[in-house]
From TrEMBL:
It comes from Lichtheimia corymbifera JMRC:FSU:9682. Beta-glucosidases are one of a number of cellulolytic enzymes involved in the degradation of cellulosic biomass. Catalyzes the last step releasing glucose from the inhibitory cellobiose. The lineage of its organism: Eukaryota, Fungi, Fungi incertae sedis, Mucoromycota, Mucoromycotina. GO terms for molecular function: beta-glucosidase activity. Its EC number is 3.2.1.21. It is an enzyme of class 3 (hydrolase). Keywords: Carbohydrate metabolism, Glycosidase, Hydrolase, Polysaccharide degradation, Secreted, Signal. One of its GO terms (biological process) is glucan catabolic process. Its main location: secreted. This is Probable beta-glucosidase G.
Length: 711
């Protein structure tokens, strides 16, 4: 087995010759402001307005700031998206947010951020429009796959590492979509009603971590929050972002999410982007200029807007002479030159793709596939290549062949896509016979191919994307019947599902389904990552980032078609709902098996500082099997009852490589970030007094050891 921590070693240390290496550290905000101010001081009102009013789709970037004066300040390029460079060639199409989150591995989050940052920088892009960090509220949500799953703490860690990774390469990260943008249905017209405690503890939590990590930009979302559009919402843009969280970067509107000029500017919007959904195409610039002249927006506020935008550029040292020129695409020979930026990023994608695979079931140790396997059946279109061009649907909006990404503005053009069949074929070698059918509807053929194979791998998927929520949680393309047909025919059936989120599993109790693998959306190296796990080169350690329920009704939040709707589950998002209501899911948050087993010693908690606070917990994890593996111990905290929190909250996790038979020490530290709740009346984060319990285990339900401490 390859120790999974090695993933971290495959980060390239130097960019290829075509890319100028990133300059070391970022500038402090203070220094960036000094530079920005000295430039903005020289600008006319019209020039400042141009820096705060975007143009869309005019160049190779999905958005630009408008020209000021080349000698004063350049035009900035803003480009999607959260998983890599959109609409570009010679780039890497890697793991989606929801899938890298399955690694529960900070190093994997960071490595992904770093390589994405390198690619954006290599293409001369100033601002990456990602990561997307909103926790998953409802499994039907079209865009949940762009972000990191249902838990705000996990999303917060992933956000922090991703932002730091991206910005280490001098590219501005944009955390989005702020805030309450958790469904596609009526996304530009509906108002979500969220109480202040829930807003802070659930939906803001990852944003707070992203801002702590230095995110240069925050994108306000399409929807209204409590009756006010997110891009003209003074409470969220100024009171929370700037006053509470100390955000010093720029707020940028989602494309067309600006609904007013004066209100937006005064509320705290710094950069409006076009594709209008309010007035005329150029109205923001025209109106803002006039509003400043009329005194309806103070000139100082305009200067502040321009300064904030400019400061992001200086903070990331994009004024350095070696920051590359824009060269995103090159399909048109007259346009920008070819700039390959992939370096060895495919290796990172392959390794983290394997580390992300969740093993949901493995009866009779049917996996990993050993030397006795001579005949493998592969069934289902999801196991094979796209019958046409891998990129033949605009923004990925079709489900043909294996699914490795969702669709919408968050996609990346595949340079290639290793299908499961290709990955399995190259891992299996010449002595294994592989038969296959990609016909999802010919059940007789599926059974026929499967019946005398040593193992039958049946593939199914469920896609989702931007603009529309899922109609149901069922598998696409006859997946349920196909799985059943294969399981009826072969007693060693392995189900593999590529899905953007949870699916229903009506076939789960079939006795012949011996193993289930959940690789998520692994990107271009899909088949190789999967084969690494199937054949035991990598011992699986991925964990579910959301709850897979028995029934659709079991989930706390469904898509609303109402013009205004309340987040009435309040703090009970995801597994917290299931625990509070005592609903047993099929597979719980944090669940995932390994080819080995682990024991946990008793956890010991000590309070090092009551005031700050600082609490430490230590334990040992022992690999009790006979293969090396990685375990993901997860620390959940139960707050004192008086705090009114859900039964328990994830507040720590680690990925620990443990050799067969050996033990490793694990420790967690909890401070204010982990131990406080939002006090609505005092308007601050407070640490409740009383008895806390720390639970450490292998999933949200599989708690192995607990201890108490008092604050
Ligand atoms: C709309 C999407 O919501 C956002 O995520 C994206 O960055 C912009 N379009 C630009 O494409």
């Amino acid at each position: 087995m390859v120790p999974l921590k090695q993933v971290a070693l495959f980060i390239s240390c130097a960019a290829l010759g075509v890319q100028a290496a990133a300059s070391s550290d970022q500038l402090s905000w203070d220094k960036a402001y000094v530079k920005a101010k000295s430039v903005v001081d020289q600008m006319s009102i019209e020039q400042m307005v141009n820096l705060t009013t975007g143009a869309g789709w005019g160049s190779q970037c999905v958005g630009n700031t408008r020209p000021v004066d080349d000698d004063l300040f350049p035009v900035l390029c803003l480009q999607d998206g959260p998983i890599g460079v959109r609409l570009a060639n010679n780039v890497t199409a890697g793991l989606s947010g929801i899938t890298v989150a399955q690694t529960f591995d900070k190093a994997a989050f960071r490595d992904r951020g770093v390589y994405m940052g390198k690619e954006f920088r290599g293409k001369g892009i100033n601002v990456q429009l990602g990561p997307c960090i909103d926790p998953m509220r409802s499994p039907w949500a079209g865009r949940l796959w762009e972000a990191f799953g249902e838990d705000p703490y996990l999303a917060g860690v992933a956000t922090s590492e991703t932002v730091q990774g991206i910005q280490s390469q001098d590219v501005a990260a944009t955390i989005k979509h702020y805030i309450g943008n958790n469904q596609e249905t009526n996304r530009t017209t509906s108002s979500v009603v969220i109480d202040d405690r829930t807003l802070h503890e659930v939906w803001l939590y990852p944003y707070a971590r992203g801002i702590e990590a230095g995110s240069a930009m925050v994108m306000c979302s399409y929807n209204m929050l409590n009756g006010t559009y997110a891009c003209e919402n003074e409470y969220t843009l100024t009171t929370i972002l700037r006053d509470e969280l100390g955000f010093q970067g720029a707020t940028v509107a989602d494309w067309g999410a600006t609904h007013s000029t004066i209100d937006s500017a005064n509320a705290g919007l710094d950069l409006s982007m076009p594709v209008r959904i309010y007035e005329g195409e150029d109205d923001f610039a025209k109106n803002l200029t006039q509003a400043v002249k009329d005194g309806k927006v103070k000139k100082e506020r305009l200067a502040e807007m321009a300064t904030r935008v400019a400061a992001t550029y200086y903070k990331l040292k994009q004024d350095a002479s070696d920051f590359p020129d824009g060269a995103i695409n090159s399909t048109d020979p007259d346009s920008a030159p070819v700039v390959p930026v992939q370096d060895d990023h495919a290796k990172i994608v392959r390794d983290s793709g394997a580390a992300a695979v969740v093993l949901l079931r493995n009866e009779d140790n049917v996996l990993p596939l050993g030397d006795s396997i001579q005949k493998i059946a592969i069934v289902g279109s999801d196991g094979g290549p796209n019958p046409g061009d891998i990129n033949n649907c605009t923004d990925g909006a079709c489900d043909q062949g294996t699914l490795a990404m969702g669709y919408g503005s968050g996609v990346v053009t595949f340079p290639y896509l290793i299908s499961p069949k290709e990955g399995i074929e190259s891992a299996a070698g010449d002595n294994v016979e592989i038969t296959y059918t990609y016909d999802d509807y010919d059940l007789d053929k599926a059974a026929d191919i499967s019946k005398d194979a040593d193992v039958a791998l049946v593939f199914a998927n469920a896609i989702a994307g931007e603009g529309v929520d899922r109609a149901n949680l069922s598998l696409w393309h006859n997946g349920d019947d196909l799985i059943k047909a294969v399981a009826d025919a072969n007693e060693n059936t392995v189900v593999v599902i590529h899905a953007t989120g949870p699916v229903l599993m009506p076939w789960l109790d079939h006795p012949n389904i011996k193993a289930i693998l959940w690789p998520g959306l692994p990107g271009q190296e899909s088949g190789n990552s999967l084969a690494d796990v199937l054949f035991g080169k990598v011992n699986p350690s991925g964990r579910l980032t959301y709850t897979i329920a028995k029934n659709e009704e079991d989930y706390s939040a469904h898509i609303s078609k109402e013009a205004e709707f309340e987040y009435d589950e309040k703090l009970l998002v995801g597994y917290k709902w299931f625990e509070a209501k005592d609903i047993k899911p099929l597979f719980e948050f944090g669940f995932g098996l390994s080819y080995t087993t682990f024991d946990y010693s008793d956890v010991k908690a000590s309070v090092d500082d009551k005031e700050q606070p600082k609490v430490k917990a230590t334990l040992q994890v022992q690999n009790t099997g006979d293969v090396d593996g990685a375990e993901i111990p997860q620390a959940y905290i139960s707050f004192p009852e008086s705090a009114g929190e859900p039964p328990k909250l994830l507040r720590g996790f680690d990925k620990v490589d443990v050799k067969a038979g050996k033990k490793e020490n694990v420790s967690f530290e909890f401070g204010k970030t982990e131990l406080s709740i939002w006090d609505v009346s005092q308007r601050e984060w407070i640490v409740p007094s009383g008895e806390y319990t720390i639970h450490v285990g292998a999933s949200s339900s599989d708690i192995r050891t607990s201890a108490t401490f008092t604050l």
